[in-house]
Design a protein that fits this description.
alpha/beta; Rossmann fold; Helicase, Ruva Protein, domain 3; Zinc Finger, Delta Prime, domain 3; 3 domains; five-stranded parallel beta sheet
Length: about 350
Amino acid sequence: MSAAGSRRKKKSALQIYKDLKKDFEGGRFKPVYLFYGRESYFADQLQQILIEDTISPEDRDFNLDVVYGPDIAAKDALGICQMAPMLTERRIVIIRAFDKLQGNKLFATLAKWPNPAAIVLLICEGRPKFNADPYYALRRNPKVAQVVEFAPLWRNQMGSFLREYADSRGYKLEKGAEQLLIEFLGTGLALLTQEIEKLITYVGASERRVITEQDILQASGQTREINVFELQDAITDRRRVEAHRIAEQLLRGASSRQGECLRILAVLSQHFLKLWKLHGCPSYGLKPADISKRTGIPPNMIYKYRQAARKWPLPEIKRAMQLFLSADSEIKGFSKRSPHVIMTLLIVRLLSEPLRY
């Protein structure tokens, strides 16, 4: 077998999470876990599972410690990790913001002499420096410590995750609904799962127990005719009057104009960022799957985005991104203008006469 063939395929953050969840629920633990990465949702969920499935509520006062790196001395934190459990088989120690714990190199000793009666979970906010202790020592001892990076999921993994989450709550996501959620809210899993919980409440305990695209639009105060994606299309096609009409109706029906404007900006920014990335792709030679991976555009939408890219040359896309950034700052309090005025001016500037080259 070749060297390339013998390499193990790297697991996704979702698969790692599922494996650890299965281990935790099955009572299979290592003495030490070190979690890091930009997708904090998985670390937070595993922390909750670890606590709920390992120590009963009445035993947590004596056998569970959750501390924060900036709030404790390293020697005191290490001492907690070395304590014996009281009246139970195990104790749990969770140190959040472990990378902010001053002097945490003392924890290199856990790699050699772990407490067999404790489960220590170390959660970092940033990326650890693995060429220095304690991270070097922990990574070098996989029998004692499991080091895990929770990177953001690829866009093509998001839909599967959201469908599985809804299934776990006894609901189905209609085909296309997961993509609408991602377009509305981005790819942060904590925010997306919170939104599904809201939608479950909105749909209620109906017999169908299905969350549709229409449910998502209506729950956000929009309709199929008047929504942020119709606004996105109107701007892309340079239909100025239509863009102003849709934006006006969106803001009129919003419970918070500031929040609605920020959400509109988030969707428009993502749309134009994809157009920017598409401009950087070769015209020929790339398969739709490769283009999708580079740009985040679903394969079935590439043709539509290519048409849009012809209407928006790269210099105009760069100008649009600057306008979005400026409007975002204004809406968040760096201007005395109202959100309504800021959004109106944004559309006027976006759809002014095209730049001349």
